[in-house]
Specification:
By secondary structure, the protein is α/β, with parallel strands linked by helices. It has 11 helices and 16 strands. It folds into 2 domains: 197 residues, P-loop containing nucleotide triphosphate hydrolases (Rossmann fold, 3-Layer(aba) Sandwich); 105 residues, CobW-like, C-terminal domain (Hypothetical Protein Yjia, Chain: A,domain 2). Zinc chaperone that directly transfers zinc cofactor to target proteins, thereby activating them. Zinc is transferred from the CXCC motif in the GTPase domain to the zinc binding site in target proteins in a process requiring GTP hydrolysis.
Length: 352
C-alpha cells in the first residue's frame, strides 16, 4: 500500500455515469451553462448530442468547443487517456483556456470502473489527474426496474459518491421512496439528491471530495447514514455497525454491504497485508471499499477508499468526524461471508 499523503495538486476528474435515458446529458447540459463550470473541461462521448450551440464561444477543432463561460467541451472517440493528455498539452500551449477540473460523461451501458482504472493506473495520467467524485444519474420512472434487471445499473449506483434521481416530478411519493430506499441498500454511504429540473445542481459535481480540504465532512457522510431528507424522512442505516454485519441486499442483484469494525487500534503493516490479500482474492467482486482507521501511533484517523482492485492513496483527516474511534471498513459488492471477513481482520489485527 502507498505511503500516507494528504496534499494533492493534481487536477480533479469527476465521472458522470448512469443508465441509458437516466438524464445524464440533460443534467450535464444544465450544469454546463452555469458559472460553476467556467474552469472545467468536459469530455463527452458524442459532442453533437449535448446541444450547446447557443452557448458556443469558440470552435477549436472538430471535437473541441469552448463555451461562453469558459468551459471546454471535448468529444471522446475511443482513447480516453489520449483525450486527457491532449487536454493537458493544449492547455499548456495556450490553445485551450486554463481549467482546474475535468468531468467525464460515460455512455449509458458503460461500466465506469475502466474509466477510473485509466486515470489511476496510467502513469502519465496519474501524474496530472486524480479521481474525485463519481456521480450516477438514476431515472425515477424506470430506475427501480433497472436495478432489478440490469447489472450495469446496480454497478453504477454501487460505485457512486453522489446519486442524482432525475425526473422525480414524473412519479408519486411512494415510488420515489421505494427507489431511494433501494439505492440506499445498494450504497448506504452515498449522498442521494432528488432532481426535479428546477434547481441548480452544480454543487453535485463540483463539490469537494475525500481528496481535498473537505475530506473530514466527506468521511463523516460515509459513516453517518443518509439524512432523513435524502430518504423521504427515513434514516438510512449508519455504517457505525458492529463488526461483520451485512447492512443490506438489493433484491435479485446479489450485491450486499458489509461493515467490519475493530475496537482496538490497528497496526498499519498488518492491516496492509490483510487488505492486500483481501483485494487479491476478492477484488473482482468488491465494487467499492471505504474505511476510516485508528492506527497505532497515529493521533488522527486514516481514510482509505477505492473501487475493486483500485485503491486511492490513503489520507489523514485533521480530526475524527465523531466521538467513535473504532476502525471501520465498509465493503460493497458480491461478498463472501461477513463473519469470515470479520474473523480474518481480527486475526491479522493481533499482530504486534
Amino acid at each position: 500500500m502507498d505511503n500516507l499523503k494528504n496534499n494533492d495538486a493534481r487536477y480533479t476528474v469527476n465521472v458522470l455515469t448512469g443508465f441509458l435515458g437516466s438524464g445524464k446529458t440533460t443534467l450535464l447540459r444544465r450544469l454546463l451553462a452555469s458559472e460553476a463550470f467556467s474552469n472545467c473541461a468536459v469530455l463527452i462521448n458524442e459532442l453533437g448530442e449535448i446541444g450547446l450551440d447557443h452557448e458556443l464561444l469558440d470552435q477549436v477543432d472538430q471535437e473541441t468547443i469552448v463555451l461562453r463561460n469558459g468551459c471546454i467541451c471535448c468529444g471522446i472517440r475511443s482513447d480516453l487517456a489520449g483525450a486527457l493528455l491532449s487536454l493537458n498539452e493544449r492547455r499548456d500551449r495556450g490553445i485551450l483556456p486554463p481549467f482546474d477540473r475535468v468531468v467525464i460523461e460515460t455512455t449509458g451501458l458503460a461500466d465506469p470502473v475502466p474509466v477510473i482504472n485509466t486515470v489511476i493506473s496510467d502513469p502519465a495520467l496519474h501524474h496530472h489527474y486524480r479521481i474525485g467524485t463519481v456521480v450516477t444519474t438514476v431515472d425515477a420512472v424506470y430506475g427501480l426496474a433497472q436495478l432489478g434487471e440490469r447489472a450495469e445499473s446496480v454497478k453504477q449506483a454501487a460505485i457512486a459518491d453522489r446519486i442524482v434521481i432525475t425526473k422525480a416530478d414524473l412519479v408519486g411519493p411512494d415510488k420515489l421512496e421505494a427507489l431511494q430506499m433501494a439505492l440506499t441498500q445498494v450504497n448506504p454511504s452515498c449522498s442521494i439528491i432528488t432532481s426535479r429540473n428546477d434547481a441548480s445542481e452544480s454543487e453535485v459535481l463540483m463539490s469537494r471530495d475525500i481528496g481535498d480540504g473537505a475530506r473530514r465532512d466527506e468521511a463523516a457522510q460515509w459513516f453517518a447514514g443518509s439524512s432523513a431528507s435524502a430518504t423521504m424522512g427515513k434514516q438510512s442505516p449508519s455504517l457505525f455497525q458492529d463488526g461483520g454485519k451485512r447492512l443490506g441486499r438489493v433484491h435479485g442483484s446479489g450485491i450486499e454491504t458489509v461493515s467490519l469494525t475493530m475496537d482496538e487500534p490497528l497496526d498499519w503493516t498488518a492491516f496492509g497485508v490483510w487488505f492486500s490479500m483481501l483485494l487479491h482474492r476478492y477484488g473482482s467482486v468488491i465494487l467499492r471499499v471505504k474505511g476510516i482507521l485508528n492506527l497505532r501511533g497515529v493521533n488522527v484517523p486514516t481514510v482509505i477508499h477505492g473501487v475493486q482492485h483500485l485503491i486511492h492513496p490513503p489520507t489523514h483527516l485533521d480530526s475524527w468526524p465523531s466521538p467513535d474511534r473504532r476502525s471501520r471498513v465498509v465493503l460493497i459488492g458480491y461478498l463472501p461471508d461477513a463473519a469470515m471477513l470479520q474473523r480474518s481482520l481480527e486475526i491479522f489485527s493481533r499482530t504486534k
